[in-house]
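Entry 14. Ran structure prediction on the chain below.
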Amino acid sequence: MSIKKIIMKYRGQIFFSVLLVGLLVAAYLPMRVDNVEKEAVLMRAMLTGFEQLHYQPKSLNDDFSAQVFDFYLDQIDAGRRFLTQEDIAKLEMYKSQIDDQANAGSFEFFNLSVELLEASLDKTQGIYRELLQSPFNYDEGEEIELDGDKKAFAKNDEELKEYWRQYLQYEAVERLSNKLKAQEEKGEEAPERTFEELEEEVRGEVLEFFDDWYGRMRKLKREDRLSVYLNTFTHIYDPHSEYYKPIDKENFDIRFSGRLEGIGASLRTEGDYTKVVRVVVGGPAWKQKELEENDVIMKVRQEKEEEPVDITGMVIDDVVQLIRGDKGTAVTLTVKKIDGSVQEITITRDVVVLEEQYAKSLILDGEVEGERIGYILLPSFYADFQNRDGRFCAKDVETEIEKLNAQGVDGIILDLRYNGGGSLRDVVKMSGLFIEKGPIVQVKSRGTAPEVLKDVDSRVQYDGPLVVMVNSYSASASEILAAALQDYNRAVIVGSPSTFGKGTVQRFVDLDRTVRGYSELKPLGEIKLTTQKFYRVNGGSTQLKGVTPDIILPDNFYYIKTGERDREYAMEWTEIEPVAYDQEVYKVDNVEALRAKSEARMAASPVFQKILANAKRVETQREDTSYPLGLKDYQEMVAERQEQSDSFDDLLDEDVLTGIENLPQDVAGIEADESKKARNDEWLENVAKDIYLKETLAIMHDMLSASR
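Output, structure tokens:
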């Protein structure tokens, strides 16, 4: 091997070793830290982590560089609104050099892209402001293509201006059509305004819309743009590997654990201001009853500070960091109320529990009198590893099963719809609640033999009939549980044609721990990278293919390719050797008969037939991404689509279930807490309208009838 090839092979390791030595020396020398140094460290730390730990590492070569180039352009200008082919030509000189720059810790390509984007913001803002000064011609029978994948970048500034003319006219014709319709519906109740007046008003609204959008884009920091760039690299490995800025990781932990310490309010940026869009029921702000939706937060003061921080123009992540804080500490918000009055509101921070993601259960009346079915909803496989007294989904589901057993239910339905997964440890424990003991899932790391994760607890917490509900958004841990119970013939799986298809395991790596010394550069953030694939006990993977339910219930996405199959750079489906597995608790041995009865019911059901018809409509509209710009043509299109939509509007709005009860053990706690009662009432209303749950109850009845 030549010296050049040896250097090329090990250049990443050589660079990172030199970089670490430099950092260790720098840790003891006074020197100025700037973004150049930090970004170089960040890039190399990230890539070294992927090289050493990712399940399927990539060769950083010219092919990889070209993939990053193409994917990055789609990330920063998916709608083809900013860059021209002339800009792309300037960037293309780096198309085969991105890998070399990454290894060297340099950012020439990224820097040029930011420079071109910022120049385009100035240029295109001038374009839309100029174009919106004059009325559009709404008589032309032209159309606009809104799918960026179906159109090329504009050749030059002249063609870009024409692109923008179409974008602006589309925004205007949509609003104008709505205003004309609203005026027509009011009739003589309101003074009629001329077409010219409405058109001028519409252009003003479009101007305000784009000015607001550009204002938010101009507030983006370099680290925000860099995060997009770094995540382009991670995505080439697979769609679930990501770089997390420190604030992004904090938000992830909150979603995963279901708890945070703060005031309990959701915020949104509007122009230069931060508005309250939701007060979390049960949180400190909700209990205090002073902070309200639509309040505008102007200043934030900590309890040990005399002067507040004016947050006007501040990006939302920085605002959130100021308002969040430790339990027991106070924060004072200066807010502008909807009536224009200004108030100071002091709120003592506390633990905000996002209870809507925790397991909970009901008792439902079955298909015949006296039939009582337990229903457990599990929105995610949550686990609070940071808190000794935190919530873990396996333990919570076990508790719900114990309560249902105490009520003598005839069967249990476990609802994993829209459950995106979570804790692998908890899914193994939870699967074990339904079998004696045995393998649950096989987990394979790079270059190693598969590890079989087993339920080692011989106890069976529930030994009766079981149905698991899934849909195309049930992913990861949800798929592990559904696959295991299906392979064991322990449960009937019902739902969409397939689950999501995420058969990979990720872990977080704190980049601060990979770079020793030089604390001034930190925090660097964390990377979440795919380190393992998991396989069913029968040897097949859920990756890409997902889990095919035993009984398929059509939904609005029945004809659309969703999930992992629709993601770029998704890892392939593979299989390994199966392991021995068996259980003697309860076996479903009549799936074909259950399926036939369910299909007969759905064929005779007007609701399910309308769901299928709506799914076909959704498929057609998803593919049709071209819209008319002429007013008459646009109005005709809207009227036609509205007519189609109206026929499906109340499809899932009617009550289809009665006999829905909270468990007696839960009633006292619900009634004693106003916030819990409000959430519970809303949940019961939604359950009553659930046509899929109604069919699942019918399937459960068929299971019970067959075993009698």
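The radius of gyration is 28 Å. Will compare against last week's run tomorrow.
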